[in-house]
Amino acid sequence: PSFFGYPLSIFFIIINEFCERFSYYGMKAVLILYFKYFLNWTDDFSTAIYHTFVALCYLTPILGALIADSWLGKFKTIVSLSIVYTIGQAITSVSSISDLTDYDHNGSPDNKSVHIALSMTGLILIALGTGGIKPCVAAFGGDQFEEEQEKQRTRFFSIFYLSINAGSLLSTIITPILRAQECGIHSKQRCYPLAFGVPAALMAVALVVFVIGSGMYKKVQPQGNVMIQVAKCIGFAIKNRFQHRSKEFPRREHWLDWASEKYDKRLIAQVKMVLKVLFLYIPLPMFWALFDQQGSRWTLQATTMDGDFGSIQIQPDQMQTVNPILILIMVPVVDAVIYPLIEKCGINFTPLKKITVGMVLASLAFVAAALLQVQIDKTLPVFPANGQSQIKILNLGADKATVKFGSQVADVTVAPMNSVNYMTFETSQLQSVSITSGGNNQSKAFNYLSGNRHTLQVKNTARHLFADWLFDNVTSKPQEGNNLIRFINNVPDNISITMGDTSFGEMMPLSASNYSIFAGGRTDIIKAVRNSVNCSTSKAFGFGSAYTIIINNCTADTFDVAYSEDIPPNTVHMAWQIPQYFILTCAEVVFSVTGLEFSYSQAPSNMKAVLQAGWLLTVAVGNIIVLIVAGASGIKQQWAEYVLFAALLLAVCIVFATMAHFYTYIDPSEIEAQLDEEEKKQVKKDEEVNEKQAEAVSQL
Q1: Beta strands of 246-399 (E only): which ranges?
Q2: pLDDT-flagged residues of the chain (< 50)
Q3: Are 623 and 545 part of one and the same domain?
Q4: Considering the domain boundaries, does residue 15 fall inside one?
Q5: How far apart are CA 573 and CA 569, in angstroms?
Q6: How many domains does the chain have?
Q7: Do 212 and 277 belong to one domain?
Q8: Of 567, 597, 621, which closes a domain?
Q9: Residue 83 contacts residue 207 (beta carbons within 8 Å)
Q10: Does 425 fall in a domain?
Q11: N or C: which end of the chain has fewer CB within 10 A?
Q12: DSSP strand pairing (546-554 vs 483-489)
């Protein structure tokens, strides 16, 4: 059955591809934050596992192509591996339910190893599934067309790639929103089960849709895999050359000619063309090493930034959507405007030059990321190192207060109802502090462990001088852009305090609460009840801050509240990431699109599978490079790591440009035509020889 001249079956294939890509990119978008915040892994370890997973996803297509071409056929391969894929997505979703092992109902899992084992099993199955079906779906779609439907087939591939981008764009917007929701049985958490569960459901939909169309598909029987043939041919040539390495055997023009004893001239010529292109692939993985850090390092960078875009709050993992949005805009712009302009200027912008420009642009994108990181680092607070303590002073009284720290630092005077921010001390030299305020004196011992922050609250009242230490218990910026809020009751009566949905209970005079976590970017309402009098106010705390809120008064007319900033909010706006995304997307357009196009133009049509495998292999190797560089470099400063990657790519780019300079473009169809001509001549020759032999026999 056909629809507008297209086989009806391809609509099932396109819907299947949309759902599958939604499923993959949706899960991948929140993956790095799941590692960091749910499994509590470090940035470096999270990045390492993330890139191992992506590398696996690009290694398994080779396996998928072998299974499809040599054994099961494309249809059965897609169905069986989609089942594996769906199971993997479901397991990953289950692994993110904290209530599974949260025995004490405190909101965090008590048995991390169960969650790690489940999520790793899920991810391995997903890598097998997504990779295994990747080389089959597009080719299976192409199989549905007849020979004379060339125009429709070309349009199908355009719609197919559009469905990939639409699926990735929508999922990268939607799954971070799902992740940001609060859910859980005993205590409310970030909703990872939903963020992973929706992609799992869509993968199940993809599978069902694909199976429904089963009766309409044209199913081509497996023809044997050309990759195996190529590998055997290369292997035989090497073995044969090694066996005939002595001087008595004449040299051959090309080392692959040593396979001519077993393989025909045509296959050897085709393998030569393929190897010529694959040789150029050697430097390409370095590009992917930078490109795929959008989902890891750049997302982690966004967690330290301000996502307030006016009426909407952007989640750190949503910044990744900038790439697919720009791709949809840039591909037509580059094709219709930029390339023709370059041509008009008389510049011969060959495919290899485009790839080189792509590498330079990706390198520049990482320089932009490094410059941005330097700006972010300036805004980050300094926390005490080992052997150090930090002290902040809050003067809650109406008299000024002077605090003496001994010989380490000059005396500090704090104005009434004011504070002095954190000062750093060597813990070993700090035994006690003495406080003077309004004619009263008091000494306060300091016997705490190093590496922490403390707040000294001081208040001189009519009767005595009050001084007390608060243990802050915060040595890093709040995660995920959350805010930490605590209260001090500076009113002579008990007071009940709530902020948003969180109750701080009834607080006695001069008592302080512990910090509570609040989602970033919201405006929260603060309510206090004192002797049946209700007071309320509201405030937005930005992203990633910590505040001590001091209630100074609460009457029918006034609600006097002071905000003391313990950790400043993220001040560098997420929009500053857009330039680096823009440069990297431009790099992708000239690199990625051109790369595949160039490969196909330089090799015979029956070798496309080998080149596709080689191309995907460069992506896998690129992700392995991230593991090695991030693991072995030992660089502590993130900006320096960005610069290192930029420099490495630039160095590789120079190597590639040199290789490209010596490359001569070929026309595979011309070479194939020559081979056809030679074969015809050979057949004619053989026929003539046979005729002569037949004549000789008849004369006898």
Answers
A1: 308-309, 312-313, 388-395
A2: none
A3: no
A4: yes
A5: 11
A6: 3
A7: no
A8: 567
A9: yes
A10: yes
A11: C
A12: parallel
The CA distance from 163 to 220, in Å, is: 24
User: CA 323, CA 585: separation in Å to the nearest integer?
Assistant: 6
Residues 525 and 610 occupy one common structural domain: no
Q: In terms of domains, do 356 and 417 share one?
A: no
Residues 81 and 216 in one domain: yes
| pLDDT for the residue numbered 109 | 85
Q: Is residue 235 part of a domain?
A: no
Taking a C-beta distance cutoff of 8 angstroms, is the pair 65, 105 a contact? no
**Structure tokens given for 6:** 């297209």
Same domain as 307, residue 412:
no
d(CA 303, CA 513): 27
Q: For 517-574, how does the pLDDT look when each residue is reduced to its tens digit (9 = 90+)?
A: 998 888 889 999 999 999 999 998 888 999 999 999 999 889 999 999 999 999 999 9
Please tell me whether residues 409 and 357 are part of one structural domain. Answer: no
Query: 512 has which bridge partners?
Result: 488
If phi > 0 it is left, if psi is from -120 to 50 it is alpha, else beta; for residue 484 that is beta
Last residue of a domain, one of 204, 224, 244: 224
Of 17, 142, 27, the C-alpha closest to 91 is 27
* Residues 117 and 109 sit within 8 Å (Cβ to Cβ): no
**Nearest by Cα to 213 from 155, 140, 297:** 140
Proportion of the chain in helix, strand, coil states, percent, rounded to 5: 60, 15, 25
CB 499 within 8 A of CB 484: no
Contacts of 243 (CB under 8 A, 6+ apart): none
3-state secondary structure of 403: strand
Rounded distance between C-alpha atoms, residue 628 and residue 336, angstroms: 39
In the three-class reduction of DSSP (H, G, I as helix; E, B as strand; rest coil), residue 679 is classed as helix
pLDDT tens sequence across 593-604: 788 778 777 877
Largest CA distance in the chain: 140
Residues 449 and 522 in one domain: yes
Owning domain of residue 412: 388-567
